[in-house]
């Protein structure tokens, strides 16, 4: 079923997760070590207590001190949030102010003295459960989620050379640590995206178009060195046909200490489908076709700026059908809770414009607002932040088999 994609996925895992000499890791990073603890062993704090278990901050660009000058082995990109004040007082997490001092929550003799957020998920309790309950208290760790909504426009062979599809999209992405797997340095992600397009029909049907993308997989982020992972994307497309497809998507890259990242991401068809559809508004014609996801190979260069929270990537490559690929994506904070992201991908068909190039062309343009709930902000970074975007029409192209 997975054909040669099995070998590629295995090679990615072998390279990223078990080739230890090629990685520069923060072995002494207490944040990284703390992620290996299972959530069932989380310490319960007082009601207004706040602990952000997966956040870190970095030096401002104008800071004169560099962690590379420290004698002990530390993360060259990330500064640990743990700062020992005295034997009985430890600063766990906080914000960077102009002087570069980390200010945040303080634990004294096991109790939280000061906190900056109490929303009911950071190890605190909800309402009537503050003094104990007879039933388990719901505690949703919202810092693991990101929610997004926006608009997108796309086209491809499924549009049969006619007008493109434009509409709305919404979904979420979720990431968490896998304690006990890969020495606690592996993470998992799960996401969903829904789209509603062609709300007024199209030139081939009166029906509107509805899509659902599901993405699940594992990944590993590195402080400096090799990182990557693999996910499985599922697509359900309901239009003038009923289509279900699956692809495997992988990514492997090298992280540089100056926040530059170079790598390649790939997608492989895993399960094709056959459709029986009625094409045409007047006297529709019954058509039987076989569809599959397009194999993609895209090299990319990504640049991130920790002080501003801005991240951008440009990419280019080719497909298994000898088509070309060009694309970019961009993310920037608006406030501490909201960010904008934009993306564009263009598949350049091998066929010329003089033949069937117009019907084989595929592209996607998207613009989303992203919301970070709970105590998380747009400037927080963590090892468990999903490495892959949720499946979309910009990374899941469909073609005739």
Characterise the protein shown here:
With 401 residues, the protein is mainly β. The chain folds into 2 domains: 30-131, no CATH class; 142-400, monomeric porin ompg (Porin, Beta Barrel). It contains 3 helices and 19 strands. The protein has helices spanning 5-17, 30-34, 357-360; strands at 83-86, 89-96, 102-108, 111-114, 145-155, 165-177, 187-197, 209-220, 225-238, 242-255, 260-271, 273-279, 285-293, 296-305, 310-319, 324-333, 338-348, 362-371, 398-400. Strands 5-6-7-8-9-10-11-14-15-16-17-18 form a 12-stranded antiparallel β-barrel. A hairpin with a 4-residue loop joins β15 and β16 (324-333). It is globular. The two termini are 15 Å apart. Mean pLDDT is 74; it is low at 15-87 and 89-130.
Radius of gyration from CA coordinates: 24 Å
Q: How much β-strand is present in the residues?
A: 35-45%
CATH architecture group name of the largest domain: Beta Barrel
Q: What's the number of helices? A: 3
Strand line-up across the major sheet: 5-6-7-8-9-10-11-14-15-16-17-18
What's the CATH C level of the largest domain? Answer: Mainly Beta
Largest sheet: 12 strands, antiparallel, barrel
- Please indicate the count of domains: 2
Averaged pLDDT: 74
Which key phrases capture this entry?
401 residues; single chain; twelve-stranded antiparallel β-barrel; 45% strand; 5% helix; Porin; mainly beta; globular; 19 strands
Quick structural summary:
By secondary structure, the protein is mostly beta strands.
């Amino acid at each position: 079923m997975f054909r040669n994609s099995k070998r590629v996925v295995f090679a990615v895992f072998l390279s990223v997760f078990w080739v230890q000499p090629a990685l520069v890791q923060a072995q002494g990073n207490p944040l990284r070590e703390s992620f290996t603890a299972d959530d069932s062993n989380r310490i319960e704090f007082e009601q207004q207590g706040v602990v952000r278990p997966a956040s870190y901050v970095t030096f401002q660009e104008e800071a004169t001190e560099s962690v590379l000058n420290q004698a002990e082995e530390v993360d060259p990109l990330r500064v640990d949030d743990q700062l020992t004040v005295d034997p009985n007082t430890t600063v766990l997490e906080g914000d960077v102010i102009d002087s570069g001092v980390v200010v945040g929550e303080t634990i004294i003799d096991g109790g939280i003295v000061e906190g900056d957020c109490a929303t009911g998920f950071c190890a605190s309790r909800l309402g009537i459960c503050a003094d104990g309950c007879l039933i388990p208290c719901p505690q949703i760790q919202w810092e693991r989620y990101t929610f997004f909504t926006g608009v997108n426009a796309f086209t491809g062979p499924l549009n049969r050379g006619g007008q493109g599809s434009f509409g709305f999209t919404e979904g979420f992405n979720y990431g968490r640590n896998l304690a006990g797997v890969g020495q606690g340095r592996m993470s998992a992600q799960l996401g969903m995206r829904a789209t509603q397009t062609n709300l007024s029909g199209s030139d081939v049907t009166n029906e509107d178009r509805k899509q659902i993308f599901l993405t699940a997989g594992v990944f590993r982020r590195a402080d400096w060195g090799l990182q990557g992972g693999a996910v499985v994307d599922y697509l359900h497309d309901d239009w003038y046909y009923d289509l279900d497809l699956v692809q495997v998507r992988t990514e492997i890259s090298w992280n540089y200490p100056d926040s530059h990242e170079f790598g390649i991401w790939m997608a492989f068809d895993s399960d094709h489908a056959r459709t029986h559809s009625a094409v045409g508004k007047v006297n529709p014609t019954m058509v039987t076709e076989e569809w599959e996801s397009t194999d993609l190979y895209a090299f990319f260069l990504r640049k991130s700026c920790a002080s501003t929270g801005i991240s951008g990537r440009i990419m280019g490559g080719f497909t298994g059908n000898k088509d070309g690929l060009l694309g970019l994506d961009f993310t920037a904070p608006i406030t501490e809770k909201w960010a904008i992201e934009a993306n564009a991908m263009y598949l350049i068909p091998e066929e010329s414009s003089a033949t069937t190039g117009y019907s084989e062309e595929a592209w996607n343009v998207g613009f989303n607002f992203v919301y970070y709930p709970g105590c998380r902000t747009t400037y927080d970074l963590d090892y468990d932040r999903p490495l892959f975007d949720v499946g979309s029409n910009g990374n899941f192209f469909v073609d005739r088999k």
